């Protein structure tokens, strides 16, 4: 952060339950939640300190409770096999008669101990161990069904919901056929229909690009799809938009193809160089990607002309809010080639005015100099606040950010704390890495769903949410 990110413009969360955590937060969130009617009722603070969970799973503020919906290694209710490991991105979509469909990614590589079971008609590459599972919940939040929604994909990290009620799951890999045992090229987006997975099948949306996908967001007015690329080594990833041939065609329409473009901010080759929240660029260019399939050269290595293209390290979360798309750079490290250091940026792109604004900067001038405070998956809460999944080592949290800029702890993975305490007691086992992922809310806003990556666990959290 630049030296003019002063204390008067930051709010620090000094205590989160039993642990002290300090996070530098900079910026004004008024514009972040513009267009969200419920934002006007968001309070100035969080929900109080976290209360240690006697069951050692999930610490929450007083008055909140959780339920475990699904856990890796359990049997899928469909009988197709066991619940796969590595729970990652997720969405909650409305179903018929008040039901809710949860679609959950499994970021499995070819070494995963619990792969997504292969199912006829839903498997892309039999050697791929990633994919999605779908849970159907009744009006009381009870699990009615749990089944494979797509299989045979690889490293399914995040994705995004569509306006027509499907989920776009993203492969965060560029492995080709013949690499790591795969029989097909990987690095694609796939559409998943939670109500009827066989209707969407396992068809790669090749025109949307082959690269290390992270997340997507769809503009409901135009049908344009925005995509982030999670690359932590130079050249870093790009921020893309996909202009579909049939922008409002509904489920399956993205198979018709379209144009893939990458964002260029004139004079800014690396977004990490921008350190001042509120910095705005009134002109953003979109440049056609020379080879979306990356047949010879990965897209971020391709030649975009003498004016170049804009890169950013670790582009991750992406969502649509109001009339803008928001996307996250999880961190930037100059030691790894970035132009500057930070522990998280959130950018806002207004497509109507082609305007890009840096809305939030986390760190690095925090009391705890750790990249573990980096934001990853994000979503808007019904109250108008923002929920952010932390991605790093040690104790892991879901943090809330109010529209007034206060950062507070919403949940803590007690499993990570238990493992760390055990390791500190002299056992040879290292602390377990248990980041949160896939935070999302039910359509009625009464339940927050979130995954623990490992051990793969899906939680439903209810309590006195501010409406």
**Separation of the first and last Cα atoms:** 34 Å
The CATH architecture term is: 6 Propeller
CATH topology: Neuraminidase
The class by helix and strand makeup works out as mainly beta
User: What is the subunit arrangement here?
Assistant: single chain
Count of structural domains: 1
Instruction: Give the rounded overall mean pLDDT.
Output: 85
Number of helices: 2
Task: Name the CATH class.
Answer: Mainly Beta
Uncertain residue ranges = 1-44, 365-372
Major sheet characteristics: 6 strands, antiparallel
Shape: globular
SSE series? EEEEEEEEEEEHEEEEEEEEEEEEEEHEEE
InterPro entries: PhoX, TAT_signal
Protein name: Secreted protein
Pfam families: PhoX
Organism: Streptomyces davaonensis (strain DSM 101723 / JCM 4913 / KCC S-0913 / 768)
Explain this structure.
InterPro entries: PhoX, TAT_signal. This protein has a single domain (7-462), classed as Neuraminidase (6 Propeller). The chain is globular. Strands 1, 16, 18, 19, 20 and 21 form a six-stranded antiparallel beta sheet that branches. By secondary structure, it is mostly beta strands. Strand 22 (375-380) and strand 23 form a beta hairpin. It is 3% helix and 34% strand. The chain has two helices and 28 strands.
């Amino acid at each position: 952060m630049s030296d003019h990110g002063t204390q008067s413009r930051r709010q620090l969360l000094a205590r989160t339950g039993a642990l002290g955590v300090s996070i530098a937060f900079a910026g004004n969130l008024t514009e972040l939640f513009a267009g969200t009617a419920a934002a006007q009722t968001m309070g100035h603070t969080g929900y109080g300190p976290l209360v240690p969970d006697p069951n050692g799973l999930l610490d929450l503020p007083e008055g909140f409770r959780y339920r475990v919906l699904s856990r890796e290694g359990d049997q899928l209710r469909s009988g197709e096999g066991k619940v796969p490991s590595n729970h990652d991105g997720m969405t909650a979509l409305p179903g018929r008669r008040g039901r809710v469909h949860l679609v959950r990614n499994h970021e499995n590589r070819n070494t995963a101990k619990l792969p997504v079971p292969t199912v006829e008609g839903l498997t892309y590459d039999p050697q791929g161990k990633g994919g999605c599972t779908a849970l159907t919940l009744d009006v009381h939040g009870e699990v009615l069904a749990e089944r494979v929604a797509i299989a045979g994909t690889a490293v399914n990290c995040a994705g995004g919901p569509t306006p027509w009620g499907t989920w776009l799951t993203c492969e965060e890999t560029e492995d080709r056929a013949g690499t790591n045992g795969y029989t097909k090229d990987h690095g694609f987006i796939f559409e998943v229909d939670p109500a009827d997975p066989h209707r969407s099948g396992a068809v790669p949306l090749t025109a949307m690009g082959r690269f290390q996908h992270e997340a997507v967001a769809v503009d409901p007015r135009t049908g344009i799809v925005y995509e982030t690329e999670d690359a932590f080594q130079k050249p870093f990833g790009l921020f893309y938009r996909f202009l579909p041939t049939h922008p409002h065609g509904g489920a399956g329409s993205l198979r018709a193809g379209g144009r893939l473009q990458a964002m260029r901010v004139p004079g800014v080759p690396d977004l990490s160089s921008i350190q001042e929240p509120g910095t705005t660029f009134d002109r953003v260019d979109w440049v056609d990607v020379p080879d979306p399939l990356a047949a010879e050269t990965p897209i971020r290595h391709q030649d975009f002309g003498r004016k170049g293209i804009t890169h950013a390290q670790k582009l991750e979360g992406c969502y649509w809010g109001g009339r803008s798309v928001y996307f996250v750079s999880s961190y930037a490290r100059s030691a790894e080639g970035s132009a500057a250091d930070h522990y998280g940026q959130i950018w806002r792109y207004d497509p109507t005015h082609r305007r890009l604004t840096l809305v939030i900067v986390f760190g690095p001038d925090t009391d705890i100099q750790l990249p573990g405070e980096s934001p990853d998956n994000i979503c808007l809460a019904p109250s108008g606040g923002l929920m952010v999944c932390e991605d790093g080592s040690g104790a892991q949290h879901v943090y809330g950010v109010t529209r007034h800029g206060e950062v507070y702890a919403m949940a803590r993975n007690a499993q990570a704390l238990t493992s760390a305490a055990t390791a500190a007691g002299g056992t040879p086992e290292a602390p377990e890495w248990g980041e949160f992922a896939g935070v999302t809310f039910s359509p009625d806003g009464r339940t927050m769903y979130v995954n623990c990556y490992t051990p793969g666990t899906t939680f439903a959290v209810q309590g006195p949410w501010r409406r």
